[in-house]
Amino acid sequence: xxxxxxxxxxxxxxxxxxxxxxALREYPSAFGETAEQAATLHPADWEARxxxxxxxxxxILAVATDSEQGEFVGMLGGFIDSERDRPELLVPVxxxxxxxxxxxxxxxxxxxxxxxxxxxxxxxxxxxxxxxRVDWIGLDVVETNTRAVRFYQRNGYTRTAQRRPYANNxxxxxxxxxxxxxxxxxxxxxxxxxx
Length: 195
What we know:
Number of strands: 7
Strand order of the largest sheet: 1-2-3-4-5-7-6
Structural class: alpha+beta
């Protein structure tokens, strides 16, 4: 399988909806919204999400398009601290440090194990350094989602002491993971654009 990684753009609403619903249905305890909530959104709502995620230096939503079928096979987003939509989304960084947060990581089953998730994350890291100009990047992950925890650890993230109840199920706990971004160690997303 070959794919192209790029930023989501106007007109991608239908494909974004399809990959997001697939993610929410396959992993209902991994995201901040439910499949039921996302399924009620109108096409204009999906396009509004796209417009918001295209704000230069503020948000990114990277998608991977299957070169043969044209559908999105993966997605991963990021936003800077001032763009968070829930006040509890804070990360432990030094005072005055700028930070970004990763969200919505998902790769369809047929593309897993191919390195696509690493490439999507590297694209968000490059955005965070070059465009958002942040020093730290963090994320929330449900502690029992060991596959995701290992993925982020492999990509330089470490667990912090910060925990919080998962928004959609208070019986689950999210751990905050962080990574310091060093411009010299982040791969160029241009090198990752095609596979």
